[in-house]
Q: What sequence folds into this?
């Protein structure tokens, strides 16, 4: 009886995870936070300096994108996280999809080239795009995130759109983050761009 109840509780908990993910996702869309002001655009030397400052290393380059990577035994600013890789992708091709096959292959190549003492449990990715003007279609594209977190494992991908050289748009909440991994990714976004708003 107790074993059956335990199994039922585990199943119920796992079934709730996708529902919670969708609830957080649609809440962020409903909150509809505008672009935030930045002091350091992605094409500037200051951005490159920030990548170095926050321990990112150049990892891969193609005609469509450039990849930087950072390795953490424990993620900053939050508790109880395992070994993680954080990717920064600069899109040269503004039509690049977050699920682009060549991008996925390049990230796999980078991961296999990294020597780690601990098994990587989490992957966080920020993909940067640029535009001179925000459009409804571009905004919808920025809503195409990957936000999977179960217990202490996560795969998070957040597309980020630089609008002119002074603003950045990314899907984010007013206060309640979907999970601690999403929080870390957005906080890093703020630090890398020297955002006027901070967590």
A:
């Amino acid at each position: 009886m107790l074993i059956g109840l335990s199994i039922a509780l585990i199943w119920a908990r796992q079934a709730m995870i996708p529902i919670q993910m969708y609830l957080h996702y649609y809440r962020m869309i409903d909150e509809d936070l505008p672009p935030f002001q930045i002091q350091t655009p992605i094409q500037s030397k200051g951005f490159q300096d920030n990548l170095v400052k926050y321990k990112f290393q150049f990892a891969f380059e193609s005609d469509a994108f450039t990849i930087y990577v950072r390795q953490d035994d424990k993620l900053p600013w939050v508790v109880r996280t395992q070994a993680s890789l954080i990717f920064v992708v600069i899109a040269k091709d503004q039509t690049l999809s977050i699920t682009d096959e060549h991008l996925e292959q390049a990230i796999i190549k980078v991961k296999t080239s990294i020597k780690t003492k601990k098994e990587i449990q989490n992957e966080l990715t920020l993909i940067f795009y640029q535009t001179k003007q925000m459009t409804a279609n571009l905004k919808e594209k920025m809503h195409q995130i990957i936000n999977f977190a179960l217990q202490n494992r996560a795969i998070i991908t957040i597309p980020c759109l630089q609008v002119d050289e002074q603003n950045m748009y990314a899907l984010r909440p007013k206060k309640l983050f979907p999970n601690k991994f999403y929080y870390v990714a957005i906080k890093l976004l703020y630090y890398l761009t020297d955002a006027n708003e901070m967590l």
In short: The longest strand covers residues 153-163. Residues 54 and 135 are 31 Å apart (CA to CA).
